[in-house]
Amino acid sequence: YSRNKRNKNVLIQKLLVATLLAVVALASSNVLKPKGSFELLILHNNDMHAHFEQSSQRSGTCTNDDREAGKCYGGFPRVAHVVKEARAAALNHTGPPVLYLNAGDTYTGTAWFTIYKWKIAAEFVNALQPDAVSLGNHEFDNGISGLTPFIENLTCPILCANLILTKEPELQAERNLMDSVVFNINGTKIGVIGYLTPDTKVLAIRNDVEYIEEVTAIKKEATRLKNMGVNILIALGHSGFTKDLEIAEKVEDIDLVIGGHTNTFLWNGTTPDIEKAEGPYPTLVKQKSGRLVPAVQAYAYTKYLGKLHILFDSNGEIIRSNGNPILLDNSIKQDPEVLAIVNRYRENIMIITEEVVGTTSVILDGQSCRLKECNMGNLIADAMVYTYASEYRGYGWTDAPAAIIQGGGIRASIAHVNSPANITKGDLLRVMPFDGNVVKVTINGRDVWRMLEHSVWRYNPLRAPGQFLQMSGMMVEYDFQQPPGKRVMKVYMRCGECLNPEYSVLNTTGKYKILMPAFLSMGGDGFSVFDDLPSTPLHYDELNCTMNYIEKHSPVYPSTEGRIIINNLDKLKSSAATLNLSLSAVVALVFSSIL
């Protein structure tokens, strides 16, 4: 706990300094261009998560009412429009040269990707014509076999310098997967180096990719490019904003860091919509030498497009950098060519997604499932138990009376205003976009305890990790006053091979059978506790289970029932609130003084 607190304090200090440095950059933005300088416009986005068509204000489905009211945001056609305009201006010399870069996680997030996988992702990315993209952790969601054709079919390089691929020859053979790429723009060499969080090893479906720590790998590649005469170096990757700041600080040769993964929203001045700024754009990081290195992200879901102007001197050092993301609202036109691709897919997708599965009398909350018991998690876990029990033919009502699903596997809420409201297949595809069958795992009580400890090992109200478990047939009580590894206080398990389902205290030497997504059974999200345990893959996934359950039980009205009790959460929340308030107060104070 104390280490996390120190890390948060360090992050506060870095961001406060960065805010003040941004003010200096803004104040100097009217300086005339020195002789021999080089101006560059960087357009960038990250974490697009298959939002190929425009979305609602909160990045859900853009309904017909939203469309008619002009309240839709983002989408690839709007991104394409802005990028094409900027490139046209560069060609006719009314604007600076342009680099358009993407920092990963094109995969996963809408029914569009769930249905069409890598094919639709490749087609839409190619339609945007980025100069380079980095890998994101979600690019591994369909395994190596679901990633390699995406890489093969991209018309731009995909970058990552910190992978060790000797045990994944199929991925190692991809010529379009590179450590870096060099662009020659008007005689100036610009190198772009990719990176990806090593956490992908536990966030993705298990594979044999190994990782080098980001700073170490980028330093090595930056040195190689410098020795080739490349003066301007950009790190483009997907490790989260804290790591972006570390790269900017510690890699001496880097001039700019463009990141993703944490969906960080940076902004100067009054924000244009509902997102709250987490720092200035760009956030400037001071290296030991005194150099200032900008770091940027552009939120997520194509709602914004980062726009950064940079002026370099003749030696490739930054004279100034300034800008703000562009809010891609209804005022931004949609490129007709990319819109035509959207419309071509949309008809078939609507046939699938508009199928009504059942109804709900309550809001199905999928947003809080990484932090506490949520009724969407209860619904899905109950549905797994119900579907399995419906086919069970042994003694009692089932031999697998418990089920779990990780909070990170629940990607959306269903919050329609009517009651009872229709639940469509499209709604459920947004909630559960991942592939993989349900698996029955046999586990002893001691390992059940270990499983639950791991569920809250990295619990953080600010950046809630996906490993927090939702459950059915189990009850757990946590105490967050205790350190990680000692937070589980009580566990109760429901009996299955019994005539009257009751809960009893977990028997640490007993045997239990638990249903779970295949991702967890293979050690996903760091659940190594399941390694080498007896398991049986079933013929359905959690999506099928949930559809089946809703069809049989509509209208559904799942509640939160005390399956997960968290004590002393206020201590974690208070430290998180202090971090948010400290940063927000300084940002507001500094920027109010210059506006």
From TrEMBL:
Among the GO biological process terms of this entry, one is: AMP catabolic process
Instruction: List the EC numbers from the record.
Output: 3.1.3.5
Span of domain 5'-Nucleotidase C-terminal: 356-531
Q: Please give the Gene Ontology molecular function terms for this protein.
A: 5'-nucleotidase activity; metal ion binding; nucleotide binding
Class of this enzyme: hydrolase
Q: Which gene encodes it?
A: HaOG204655
What the entry lists under PROSITE patterns is as follows:
5_NUCLEOTIDASE_2
**Which superkingdom, per the lineage?**
Eukaryota
Gene Ontology terms: cellular component: plasma membrane
Q: Which UniProt keywords apply?
A: Hydrolase, Metal-binding, Nucleotide-binding, Signal
One family from Pfam that matches here is Metallophos
Similarity field: Belongs to the 5'-nucleotidase family.
Span of domain Calcineurin-like phosphoesterase: 42-262
Write down the chemical reaction(s) this protein catalyses: a ribonucleoside 5'-phosphate + H2O = a ribonucleoside + phosphate
Name under which the protein is recorded: 5'-nucleotidase
User: Which InterPro entries does this UniProt record tie to the protein?
Assistant: 5'-Nucleotdase_C, 5'-Nucleotdase_C_sf, 5'-Nucleotdase_CS, 5_nucleotidase/apyrase, Calcineurin-like_PHP, Metallo-depent_PP-like
Against SUPFAM superfamilies, the record matches this protein to: 5'-nucleotidase (syn. UDP-sugar hydrolase), C-terminal domain (SSF55816), Metallo-dependent phosphatases (SSF56300)
